Amino acid sequence: MQFTTVSFLLFAAVVLLGYFLLPKKLRWVFLLGANLFFYLWAGVQYLGFILLTALSTYVAGLLMDKNFQKQDAFLAANKQTLSREEKKEYKAKVKTKNRVIMAACLTVNFAVLAVCKFCLAEPFSTMAQGGSLSFLTLGLPLGISFYMFQSMGYVVDIYRTTDKAEKNPLKLLLFVSYFPQLIQGPISKHSELAPQLTAGKGFDGKAFSFGLQRLLWGFFKKLVIADRIAAAVIALRGPEFTGVGFFLLTVAYAIQIYGDFTGGIDMAVGLSQALGITLPENFVRPFFSKNIAEYWRRWHISLGEWMKSYIFYPISVSSPMLKLSKKARGKLGNFGKRLPVYVASVATWAMTGIWHGITPNFLLWGMMNCFVIVVSEELNPLYEKFHNRFGLKDRKWYGIFEILRMFVLMNLIRIVDLFPKVEDYFSRMGSLFTTFNFNILWDGTMMKLGLTTLDYGILAVGIVVMFAVSLYQEKKGSIREALWEKPVLRYILVFVLLVVVLLMGSYGIGYNASSFIYNQF
């Protein structure tokens, strides 16, 4: 059941109505039932995966928490008799036990995730069709990458003692399976989300209104923009589109994936807000970024935070990295001092690429992002001298140039998603410098991409509206807050947006409302 289907809208209406009609103490039970119904809709064969994650996470959390409780009780009872070294030794033993439990849980779950992703890759996905490997067609269970990372973060947080283990297995299952997040996130922390899921907040008219407005805005971005431009993206992927055609593909894909991914997140966050549940923001107007580091602080924020907390920091401050830093500092100076950070960055971006897919193009995507970030960091002192020398930072035109530069750069990196064979990607990239076929912009080629003149007009207006809203948010803050004080204008705009979605959403032949790009991850 996908967000852009009529069945989901009916389901969401029932959830909202039932949730607020029930007594507060029963709401979390109702929400758990809704989660399981939503998940079973995707196929009963996938239920075992999420139950395995929930059960292994629950058991690991309880065991680690029990060890910590025993530790606290033992140390309190023997406070006067144990020396400082004995206390330290005892804590180290407990930590080792919990590390084994944590490692076992992580290994089991990530092994399942790896197998599922591996089964989707060629040549195995083709081999599986109707043959002896037909069990491989099970494919990637709904939301496994998102609920797996969210659950494993919970396990690590218990090990780090930054969170407490949930004693009620059903409440933990509620956290693991929260349905608005299953399709494409965002990835939440247990300590932030779980208390909200079981609190059963009272009805808040403003939050309910804001949530439905954001839900509608997500439909606009997904159906009116992303799904409409998808036809052009498919056409431009053809081998005949090189040079300017390839550049157009990078721009069209950027618009599609932004509308698709942020639209889905808007739906998840909006529906949750209507329920009185706050999910973390996953995007903060990334196309206004002026450098790649800023871009990744604004794009897919929850995944970036997860990678930083559970991959980057543990590696960068580990004993081997500290030893490497000490040795490299004497030979390589400041670069040697930063070397552990760069090693951790490579590992983090490799993991990020593999999370998106195990084909070579996704690993290349991760390494390209890592390379640009590391090089930019190393050259930052030169950038600062250059900017200060010519006073560029104070000039508005230069800020616009930086934004456009970053937009083009990220488009050229992002487009590797569409080329599983990396040699095809580099061939197309090379055509940018050898093929100057600007004539395709006016010789009728643009009318052969599956879009009509009306489609181009709707896309142009839709993109302008989306940009205007983002610009307002960037400069002045929440547009919903501004409209809250102007109810008549708010009702008119919401009604117009609803009509636009209903009349101009992409519902043509071949339309598939379930095709969120990030479903595959």
Work out the radius of gyration: 25 Å
Separation of termini? 17 Å
Shape descriptor reads globular
Count of helical stretches: 21
Order of helices and strands, N to C?
HHHHHHHHHHHHHHHHHHHHH
* Nearest-integer average pLDDT: 89
What is the tally of beta strands? 0
Provide the helix percentage.
over 70%
Proportion of residues in extended strands: under 5%
Low-confidence stretches: 132-138
Structural class by SSE content: mainly alpha
Largest sheet: none
How would you concisely characterize the structure shown here?
This protein has helices spanning 6-21, 24-41, 47-77, 84-120, 124-127, 144-159, 169-177, 179-182, 190-199, 205-236, 244-274, 292-298, 301-316, 319-332, 334-356, 360-390, 396-414, 422-431, 453-476, 479-484, 487-504. With 521 residues, it is mainly alpha-helical. It is globular and about 85 Å long.
Overview of the molecule:
- The protein is mainly alpha-helical.
- It is built from 21 helices and no strands.
- The protein has helices at 6-21, 24-41, 47-77, 84-120, 124-127, 144-159, 169-177, 179-182, 190-199, 205-236, 244-274, 292-298, 301-316, 319-332, 334-356, 360-390, 396-414, 422-431, 453-476, 479-484, 487-504.
- Helix 1 packs antiparallel against helix 2, helix 3 runs parallel beside helix 6 and helix 13 (301-316) crosses helix 15.
- The two termini are 17 Å apart.
- Residues 132-138 have low confidence and may be disordered.
